[in-house]
């Protein structure tokens, strides 16, 4: 006969429908090793407080180690009537250490401070794992940027040709947000560096147990200042969830460009065969499924964040069972990104850039019109008039279905007394790109510095 964790005051066990609703082992089992680490630390403070003899501690630790090995090997698994990972592991401990010793572990702790600690341990580990996967992608973006240094492309606003850019500059524009996402993960790891263990159910640790000793053993710098906060807050989980959502969004923006660039109309890239898919009916197809799945999973990953925040909204202190709903969204985000990121990085590392096509399109769509205006400003013309004059050049070229540089000297002169053949100096992609040479601009010298800055960021993170 199996005693539940709260058997004493109950005349019957839970109804089947309650048990089915309540059970969480199918997802919280992945926290089992963290739970066992917590239990080992807790056993030590029970011993220090004189609540476990030397022999009992040795028996307890031996049983916990055995249980950890059995969980790792799959020998010990949750039973259908184990409510959650904590319940199951207590059963496993008692099976190994006997009820006399095993039954002592639960003193002075609650599943509320246990689960709050486990989530932090999980978040801290996964912040590192996801962060490293993001840095792998940034590594590739930088390598590709270095490889195509000097290649121009059409820069767009509103998806219309705007001004020419270096392809490297564009690729690194995707690297910076990802680097900030990794910084966000590092930041939240620092905030998560306090252990809730010892908060008990909500009011704190009794029995002379030392929360800071448990914290130190679990790799935290300190324990929490407030046991209610320790057990009932989930802002750190939400923060982690937000950063994962942001990573999903940042990937989806690059994904969208990959999808566009891969079309016949753009023809900016070709995906490597091993990172693209075919069609079951159309033999010619080579589809950007990785980018599409990244874009699609971004929606799901954002949904996870919204679900978690909605669970937390207006939840009174302290612990409520609603909080059991905090785990699946975050697990889903971690798992989704764990699949997307390596595939995405592989796709970016192996695609071919059609640099001639990009260079050819860079000056089209009147993308050098701003350079005409800037040229006039350098000659003393107010920008307001310069903008007008340059606009008139565009109008005339458009009417004659030609590009700006195809206008004749006479035509330039006809448009404005301020225009002569010297304007041709700025009517080149190279000139345009090279002129944007202030910090942050697309001029090759600045992009070279930027590449170094990204490399530095990669080493420091
Ligand atoms: N399984 C719960 C969770 O994930 C922890 C158990 C706390 N249950 C309780 N009735 N206080 O949040």
UniProtKB/TrEMBL annotation:
Domain Fumarate lyase N-terminal: from-to ranges: 18-303
Cellular compartment(s): Cytoplasm
Top enzyme class: lyase
Record's keyword annotation contains Protease: no
InterPro entries: Arg_succ_lyase_C, Argininosuccinate_lyase, Fumarase/histidase_N, Fumarate_lyase_CS, Fumarate_lyase_fam, Fumarate_lyase_N, L-Aspartase-like
Key words of the record: Amino-acid biosynthesis, Arginine biosynthesis, Cytoplasm, Lyase
Reaction(s) this enzyme catalyzes, per UniProt: 2-(N(omega)-L-arginino)succinate = fumarate + L-arginine
Pathway per the UniProt entry: Amino-acid biosynthesis; L-arginine biosynthesis; L-arginine from L-ornithine and carbamoyl phosphate: step 3/3
PROSITE patterns attached to this UniProt entry: FUMARATE_LYASES
Transmembrane intervals: none
MF (Gene Ontology): argininosuccinate lyase activity
The Argininosuccinate lyase C-terminal domain, residue ranges: 366-433
EC number of the protein: 4.3.2.1
Pfam families assigned to the protein according to its UniProt record, in alphabetical order: ASL_C2, Lyase_1
Family: Belongs to the lyase 1 family. Argininosuccinate lyase subfamily.
HAMAP family to which the protein is assigned, alphabetical: Arg_succ_lyase (MF_00006)
NCBIfam families documented for this protein: argH (TIGR00838)
UniProt name for this protein: Argininosuccinate lyase
Organism: Brachybacterium tyrofermentans
Lineage, top ranks: Bacteria, Bacillati, Actinomycetota, Actinomycetes, Micrococcales
